[in-house]
Amino acid sequence: MKMTRKISWTLLLAAAVSFTQCKDAGDDVQIDDENELITSVTLKFTEEGTNNTTSFSYKDADGDGGNAPARFDTIALKPNKTYTLAIELLDESKTPASNITDEVAEESDEHLFVYTPAPSTLLTYTYGDKDANNYVIGLTGKAVTTVAGTGTLKVRLRHQPGTKNGTPSPGSDDVNLDFILKVQ
Amino acid sequence: MNRIVFVFLLLIAALTAHAQTSECACFVKGVVKDQHTGQPIIGATVLIVGQNSGVFTDEYGRYELRNLCPGAYTLECRIIGYNPFREKLDLTAGHEENFNLLEQEVHLKDVEITAHRTDAPSSQPLSTISGSDLDRTRGQNLAESLKGFTGVTSLQTGSSISKPVIHGLHSNRILIMNNGVRQEGQQWGSEHAPEIDPFIATRLSVVKGAAGVRYGSDAIGGVILVEPEELPFDKSLSGEVNAVGFTNGRQGVLSGTLQGGIKGFKGFGWRAQGTMKRGGNIRTPDYFLDNTGISEKNFSLAAGYRNKGLGIDVFYSRFDTKIGIFSGSHIGSVTDLLSVIENGEPFVKSGFSYNIARPNQNVSHELIKAETHYHFQNGNRFQWTIARQLNDRNEFDLHRPRNDSIAALNHPELTFKLTTLTNDVIWDHKPIAGKLAGQLGISTLYQYNLMDGRPLIPNFNQFNMGLFWMERYVKSGWELEAGMRYDYRTLTSFRIVNREKVSQDFKFSNFSGTLGATRNFSEKFSARLNFGTAWRAPNVSELFSDGVHHGAAAFEKGDATLQPEKALNTIASLKYASPKFTAELGGYYNIISDFIYLKPQPEPILTVRGAFPYFKYTQTDATFKGIDLSASWEFARYTTVTSKLSYLRVYDTRNDNYLVMIPSNRIDNQIKYELPEDAKWHKAYFSIGNLFVAQQKRVPPASDFLAPPSAYSLWNVQTGTTFDLSEKQQLEIGISVQNLFNVSYRDYLNRFRYYADDMGRNVSLRLKWKFGA
Predict the structure, then answer these.
(1) HSE on the CB side for B188, CA within 13 Å?
(2) Binary contact (A22, B372; C-beta < 8 A)
(3) ipTM
(4) Cis preceding linkage at B458, omega within 30
(5) Does the pTM exceed 0.95?
(6) What is the mean pLDDT of chain B?
(7) Which of B372, B421, B496 faces A31 most closely, judged by CB atoms?
(8) How far apart, in whole angstroms, are the C-alpha atoms of residue B721 and residue B684?
């Protein structure tokens, strides 16, 4: 009887010791790694027939939160001109910066860029590329300006895995920015 | 009315009987004997079937029935332990009839009286479900199983994830004690359900109100106790199998328990238990919810040893779940959210499938516990519990990485590994003068969290120590209780800020106290009053959140300067219980100073996905006051009506406003008809009920994208019975229908109310096969 009690106490103590194999959370801090973070969006307008390219960017180097966006350019274009519009997405939180544009191109059947000017008379956008399913993408296209005026250009990247059907409705926003657009 | 007719009939009967006395001089007499032994049977009943006359046999087994009119009679003789015997007689004069009864094989079941040790404060309302009431909730998750209590609701993320809400408080403000160990998971997230298999428990109890002294930090809103049955020491093998099927989600749940002692090893008991669950897409009245399946595999093992005053228990459990998150709830920006709200139903449509795709979460929780106690001869008692928990949570986003080679690895986008070691030592001192009993305890907790993936909350180490002392005084009808506690907590967080490791230290300490009284006016009527304080240190998500909460379309920011919340809870209740009528009325008033909540900021915050509403963790003072009323009345034979009412009002006193996400008031009515017992089946019942949930009208203006959903009313029906298959085997069957009329509704505390309706009609069939002692 005495024996069993002794044994049980020993067992319990042994269990208690084995429980104390503590670890320190501080030894194991991983660099935060957000998959597919987009920190900068650049619109490159090249005037047709020339090599004049003007770039307008949105930049938030540390992603959501932290510091406020460092740059949010106003798009300035000339009236009655035709531009080639290319878009570039980067993740500059990593070194070297990773090019998200390439990855969007790779998975073009899941992505759709949507350019919406307001008022709509400011600019007309025509898609210049198509994916394997013959749906437009929007990595490159044409933008035609008309009369002078001021408004916004909403740039959206719709992520539509498995649901892309050529319309903006399915999926969710990866990018949703309202650039100020001045045609003057 | 019935009573008057009855009295009238009785009078007529008496009159006619009187009128006949002159001619009715017949009698029957005789002796009742045991058929085998020939011994007279004393105290047997001999009665005339169909009349209200009967006599008992005397010490010689004799009986005599006098003043009978001539005619045909059926005589019955019966006594417990013998088969009843009937005889037909034609009486004209006196008659002698002897009975020889045959002994009956009647084995009365052993009556077992078990007492449970519940450490909950005695002056606070403690509600418990067990037995057949608990069986009726089988197959549901923990929070759903608790919804039958007044004052308890649930916070849901769709139909598969829900967590309990007591008096409007949830998550880290509710403490769950799983088999005597405080459940430590990632409780801060509203989509993080408690990782507990309700099949482990044979009793679920809720302590409403602050219970900070006994349980320490976090028990501001209340405590949920999940308790298994006592281990079967020195008993033969027994067990049960539960099978539950639900039509909605075509969900099946199978759970089994096997337990017993060991022959030749006195004082030993063991139990093994396992549960499997599989469900597919949930259906609202009008459409399926894509990717809302669930798959769960849990098991537990327990063993124990008892010898005189010594007891040792070891317990291991593993909970493993994979839950699909409704894909229609995935939004990238506020524009996405607003368009879903405008659409009124999800854009993503699907049929039925068991497949669980992204987004989903895989969570496992492992608990290993060892407990020992020793009762000293003089009445002192010592108890020591150590436990280790590992909570492993993996969340998979809808979108895989764009980079194909990384995507192929199929890693979770977010991983948390939380390890917790707890250690509790409790000393119950011997009762002083038979009136004063108390306990002294120390509990420690060491915890570390490792996370990986999308930045959300930091890694941290946490250490807690609490010291408490409680005394209870019992004297003729009065029970008084007082206690105090001191807690000390350190927290060190580790984050990467601009590629540098930054650590930050926090120290919190707090005193809490409790004071309560119970007065038993009579056996039926009692009253309780309790004042209790509790506290809660801010958790890491409140201190460090910084980013978009995609499920809520909100940018949430923590505040590292937050101070602990402190609650003062006053709770009073009156209880009346008689066989036909029981009622309990409780009122509470809970003041929480420095209540931590998300305060909407005037300016939205700009991200690459657009501008998001900006919320900051802020502190205020809040009051929670409410009434819980439950009553049950057997108004007619076998028929009982039960009503439960929960009423709650919450106010932000510092800002003179209401608070968000407070459950709305509700009333639940059930009427139940229990069939009289039969030899073959028993506990047969049929019930019909209605739950009415009011609209939450007390919300701060402009605090939400959508006004709280309107009121709803749901009907349900249930029926069930128990069969004795053999002496040691029982089969219990239950059928129930929830949301009988397939009503479309949305609940204010369901986070998916922006996207879709709640669950439609759900029929369930429940079988329980119980065998062994």
Answers:
(1) 17
(2) no
(3) 0.84
(4) no
(5) no
(6) 88
(7) B496
(8) 4
